[in-house]
Amino acid sequence: MKEKIISKASELFLKLGFKSVTMDDIAGEMCISKKTIYKYFCNKEVLIEESTSMVHGQVHEIMDTIIAKNYNAIHENFEIREMFRDMFKNNIDTSPIYQPKKHYPEIYQNILSIEIDQCTKCFRDNIEKGIREGLYRSDLNIEVYVKFYYTLVFHINENTVSESEAQRIELEALEYHTRAMATPKGVEELEKQLKRINN
Predict the structure, then answer these.
(1) Residue 66 forms part of a structural domain
(2) Which structural domain, as residue segments, surrounds residue 174?
(3) Residue 89: pLDDT above 70?
(4) What secondary structure letter does DSSP report for 20?
(5) How far out from the chain centre does Cα 106 lie?
(6) Residue 185 in this model has a pLDDT that exceeds 50
(7) Contact criterion met (CB below 8 Å) for 6 and 40
(8) How far apart are CA 23 and CA 34, in angstroms?
(9) Which of 184, 152, 193 is nearest to 169 (CA)?
(10) Is the torsion defined by CA of 70, 73, 78, 84 positive or negative?
(11) How far is CA 52 from CA 17, 18, 49, 99, in A?
(12) Alpha-carbon dihedral angle through residues 178, 158, 164, 49, given to the nearest 10 degrees
């Protein structure tokens, strides 16, 4: 039952916003009493924390699946971006990262420290892979580029209220990041990916 509550709460939080969804809403959606929810979660904050943790786990599982498909480094980044777009496609109003930062800063800080570690590793692996494939320049300062990119991505998500707007700017950031690192072969692959997603 606990897992079912977390799953339903995650779905509602992402769709309607962390602030606006109440324990009553979750109970109503699940046809259970509010008392049942409080049996597992002493308050809404604990439920938000567990829900965000579950969503992050799912995101990283899907990312691992994409990485396992062994696309080239640039194609891989575009696939991951499309995965995020599909995950949050029902949530066009408010960015899911912007909301906890505004309403639940403590929970947000916890998520952020985990995310920065995971994203840093993911970005670093991608850059190293792109260099091996000849898509990114071999003279890159990898740590600096990792820092540039996550600063860009987190800044966009933290400061953009609208999810659709965040996704639009993120695509620009991905193109900017890729062009800054790409060899001529990499630019060719980037153009191919941009063409693919714009068709």
Answers:
(1) no
(2) 71-198
(3) no
(4) T
(5) 19
(6) yes
(7) no
(8) 7
(9) 152
(10) positive
(11) 12, 10, 5, 12
(12) 110
Angstrom distance (rounded) from CA 182 to CA 190: 8
CATH number at residue 29: 1.10.10.60
- What whole-number distance in Å separates Cα of residue 184 and Cα of residue 186? 5
The enclosing domain of 76 has a CATH number of: 1.10.357
Q: What is the mean pLDDT of the chain?
A: 87
- pTM, whole model, 2 decimals? 0.81
32 with 75, same domain: the answer is no
Domain count, the chain: 2
Residue 150: partners with Cβ closer than 8 Å, 6 or more residues away: 116, 119, 120, 123
21 within 8 A of 13, measured Cβ to Cβ: yes
Distances (CA, A) of 85 to 46, 109, 112, 166: 27, 23, 20, 10
CA angle 28, 32, 94 (to 5 degrees): 40
Cβ atoms of 62 and 73 closer than 8 Å: no
